[in-house]
Amino acid sequence: MTENPKSSGQRSATEKDVALLAGVSQSAVSRTFSAGKSVSKATRAKVIQAAESLGFSPNLMARALATRHSNIVALVIGHLENPFYAQVVKQLSEQLRKSGKHILLFTSDPDSHDNTSMDAVLSYKVDAVILAGVTATSKLAEKCKVSGVPVVQINRESKLAGVSSVRGENFKAGERIAQFLIAGGHTNFAFIGGTEASTVSSTRLDGFRKHLESHGFHNLMTAYGYNTNSGAATAARLLLGQDDRPDAIFCASDYMAFAVSDVARRELGLRVPEQVSIVGFDDVPEASSLSYDLTTYSQSAASLVEAALKQMDTLSINPSTRQRRIEVHGELIIRGSARLPIL
Amino acid sequence: MTENPKSSGQRSATEKDVALLAGVSQSAVSRTFSAGKSVSKATRAKVIQAAESLGFSPNLMARALATRHSNIVALVIGHLENPFYAQVVKQLSEQLRKSGKHILLFTSDPDSHDNTSMDAVLSYKVDAVILAGVTATSKLAEKCKVSGVPVVQINRESKLAGVSSVRGENFKAGERIAQFLIAGGHTNFAFIGGTEASTVSSTRLDGFRKHLESHGFHNLMTAYGYNTNSGAATAARLLLGQDDRPDAIFCASDYMAFAVSDVARRELGLRVPEQVSIVGFDDVPEASSLSYDLTTYSQSAASLVEAALKQMDTLSINPSTRQRRIEVHGELIIRGSARLPIL
Question: Structure pTM?
């Protein structure tokens, strides 16, 4: 038995080595490096000193195998260029960190049919899978069900069994925006959605259309921006290039509304909101910039993430809990890009 | 021995179970789920069918323990709200995916002294640590050295032994921007940096100042925007509120330049570039938006990530390789936010 086990060779230091050097039990070492486990201050100090002098890192992957908890949550995310999703990543990382958990990140092109990235998720023993801006494949949902891994979607809905979702007030927002724009004296409405297949986008459209129709506005124009800058710009050119162009456009995301605003003002020379009002969705930080000053409907990334993690915990404790559809409260944020109600 | 081992209980299926059901060797199952290992098409098909019917996922964490390669790269990132870093995450995820690797994500507040997030990195057996927009602590660098884990920084420099860095042409960019602005007839220059402590920011300032001074411009104003929107706006108000306000501002990032442009145009009613020219750094997608139309110096996230991964591989193969400072080529991107050279 050597005094300093590290000097005896190239192998990495183990918990046993640390226990020996610190003069404590191996269980004390293990408890020191486990979140929420009790260990005296003096013991903790001895263990940490010994661990540092030996270059020991607790191997959380080894522990994951032993306890079946990796403290790792897989996040599959699409469209990181949209600041809303950058916020989701940041919020998720910060909120998970409080419980000692971390993110294993998978980026996905949400509009491609290549799901290799989503399948790769299951190659790792993760505690849960969170999807943001992408929809679970039936394969992923099935595999997670078999292995008891909770799946929660943020800002996407799913009809698959076992997949929970957290989203903003999509239908209500559509209605509220229609009400606001009608009160502003607009008469010619358009909607720019993400994709035709997106249920989130189509629920916003449904609320918007329902309120418009109940007030006698039946000729709503629709176009799709595919959640990209260039796609939204193309949709804006199409809508605003018509003789009978809209005087109010509701965009399914702030990110697309920025591109629409640029085309309207900088490319076509239209005055916003005098000639065309533009409303977004999300309330990302850039919406309040003086350049865009965007009227929008908020869905807070922090609140969505908080609700998703709560649902993840519920499902972890009781995997037989039914999936839930959770709606997070938002509100109309009135800024300068849309005409105000006429008094 | 059961025909379908899954039916015998609640335990997860193993490689052995899959081999039994597929009628192949356990090694064939293992090879099927290992990147780059050879296995016949027919065997692969049998293995995948058996694995799917048993709900088997190869446990890459268990494999990581056996092979000492986790195929996981830790990424510590600051300022995800800056689209440049969102691009770095996206590029890193996409480029790593090609070699079957994934990101374990740690977000960090780069201006806080709380390094718990950075320390947590070492609790996982990762293949490498990549830092973007944050600087390695000496503790992290030391621990990685002891355990032979490569550390590469993107867009930050470090004097620590063993820490490689990949960055844009900071000094050259500063000189080139000074040259361009002098040619445009500007006479009163300002620089808005990230933080005073940032070597990246101060190298850009050094190049800018050196070229200005060699052309007789000695009264360069400097301010710091702390890499935030509100910090940059405050710096802009300070500089542009003076009687002797600058007619050209070089900002150390596009993200800060957007806030400076908003303050100049929307808050102070200045015409850009007629009354004040604004130049950024990075060339993020938003720089080409019609709202900002920003003249900037490019540093491609794709190229930085590519160089970082190349250096990571070199260090993985030969851990005794000395750390390197790698500079990635960029260029001045001329748009509408700065006056053009007078012919």
Answer: 0.82
